[in-house]
């Protein structure tokens, strides 16, 4: 891999992030998170794009300083073109274009979903990178899919959610439990103190490798409504057990399809990516299958699970080596297929 120095910029949702990569070594990975969305129980697109405008210059500046480089050492600029919130993406895209023009360096557009998967090729993401072909369960607040990765840029979605993403289901169920947003990490923490067998919730029966999470959300809602009528303090008195039971159900739904795909396609190389890949129960399920099924598993470092610019820089580096540049006419796009 070349020793070119690349700046990556990520602004697809509510985190403004910038990273510097040299080869496949991350020299800096800086992020500014937006706490304002907690008040609203979800990301407010207009507020997110305004916060990106405030954060992007200081974040890029910090990433350059931490990497201990001069701006004129940057060989190219990679940025998230999509998918994501259009207003947020426009901020990152416009900034990347302006900076590339001022430094007179190439511009590289990056698909956010590809970046989550290819984060596994960052030097310190895993002891060893995955071998092709591998399966990657890419799971976050906005996406849930099983991707067959045949090469760096040859990917096929073989299963995806037909409604809510898994991370979205965690957040919506967290709202039913009156937990703060984002609820996924809170549910994960409380679940450690609970009994995952306390309650059972409906699981979807879908053919092939597709997912559905709207059913479990409805199942939890009706169950809670019924129990709260009998005991107004039911949620508070059973919160840890409720979180553990919900988490168990969602992770089982995710793993059942992943296990089915691995078995039917005869693939032992299995990875997870995206924000929900930080979930401790999902990580344990992967570790269990390493023993039970002989999988070679790839679980990213925590800092590469959430939306981050290191993964954008990694993809940009791979594209730089292939001479895959874009021009200043490029535009952000809310939908961007793999």
UniProtKB/TrEMBL annotation:
Record-level GO cellular component terms: cytoplasm
Assigned EC number: 2.3.1.234
Subcellular location: Cytoplasm
Binding site for substrate: 138-142, 171, 184, 188, 279
Keyword tags: Acyltransferase, Cytoplasm, Iron, Metal-binding, Transferase, tRNA processing
Catalytically driven reaction(s): L-threonylcarbamoyladenylate + adenosine(37) in tRNA = N(6)-L-threonylcarbamoyladenosine(37) in tRNA + AMP + H(+)
Xref: InterPro entries: ATPase_NBD, Gcp-like_dom, KAE1/TsaD, Peptidase_M22_CS, TsaD
Cofactor note: Binds 1 Fe(2+) ion per subunit.
The name this protein goes by in its record: tRNA N6-adenosine threonylcarbamoyltransferase
Cross-referenced Gene3D superfamilies: 3.30.420.40
Cofactor field: Fe(2+)
Residues covered by the Gcp-like domain: 25-313
Pfam families: TsaD
Major place of residence: cytoplasm
GO biological process, one term: tRNA threonylcarbamoyladenosine modification
Family named by the database record: Belongs to the KAE1 / TsaD family.
Purpose: Required for the formation of a threonylcarbamoyl group on adenosine at position 37 (t(6)A37) in tRNAs that read codons beginning with adenine. Is involved in the transfer of the threonylcarbamoyl moiety of threonylcarbamoyl-AMP (TC-AMP) to the N6 group of A37, together with TsaE and TsaB. TsaD likely plays a direct catalytic role in this reaction.
Residues that, per the record, bind Fe cation: 112, 116, 307
Molecular-function GO terms, alphabetical: iron ion binding; tRNA N(6)-L-threonylcarbamoyladenine synthase activity
């Amino acid at each position: 891999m070349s020793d070119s120095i690349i700046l990556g910029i990520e602004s697809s949702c509510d985190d403004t992030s910038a990273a510097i990569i040299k080869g496949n070594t991350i020299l800096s990975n800086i992020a500014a998170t937006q706490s304002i969305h907690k008040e609203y129980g979800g990301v407010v697109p207009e507020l997110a794009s305004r916060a990106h405008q405030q954060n992007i210059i200081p974040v890029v500046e910090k990433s350059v300083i931490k990497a201990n480089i001069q701006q004129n050492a940057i060989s190219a600029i990679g940025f998230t073109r999509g998918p994501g919130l259009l207003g947020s993406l426009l901020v990152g895209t416009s900034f990347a274009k302006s900076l590339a023009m001022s430094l007179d360096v190439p511009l590289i557009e990056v698909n956010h979903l590809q970046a989550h998967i290819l984060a596994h090729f960052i030097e310190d993401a895993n002891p060893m990178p995955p071998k092709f072909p591998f399966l990657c369960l890419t799971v976050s607040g906005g996406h849930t899919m099983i991707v067959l990765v045949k090469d760096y840029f040859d990917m096929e979605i073989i299963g995806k959610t037909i409604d809510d993403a898994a991370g979205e289901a965690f957040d919506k169920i967290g709202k039913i439990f009156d937990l703060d947003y984002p609820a996924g990490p809170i549910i994960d923490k409380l679940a450690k103190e609970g009994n995952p067998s306390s309650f059972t919730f409906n699981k979807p029966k879908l053919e092939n490798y597709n997912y559905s999470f709207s059913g479990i959300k409805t199942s939890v809602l009706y169950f809670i409504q019924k129990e709260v009528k009998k005991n107004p303090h039911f949620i508070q008195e059973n919160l840890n057990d409720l979180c553990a039971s919900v988490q168990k159900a969602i992770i089982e739904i995710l793993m059942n399809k992943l296990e089915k795909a691995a078995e039917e396609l005869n693939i032992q190389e299995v990875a997870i990516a995206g924000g929900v890949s930080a979930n401790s129960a999902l990580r344990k399920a992967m570790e269990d299958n390493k023993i039970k099924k002989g999988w070679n598993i790839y679980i990213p470092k925590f800092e590469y699970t959430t939306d981050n610019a290191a993964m954008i820089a990694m993809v940009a580096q791979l594209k730089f080596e292939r001479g895959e540049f874009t021009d200043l006419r490029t535009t952000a796009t809310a939908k961007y297929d793999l």
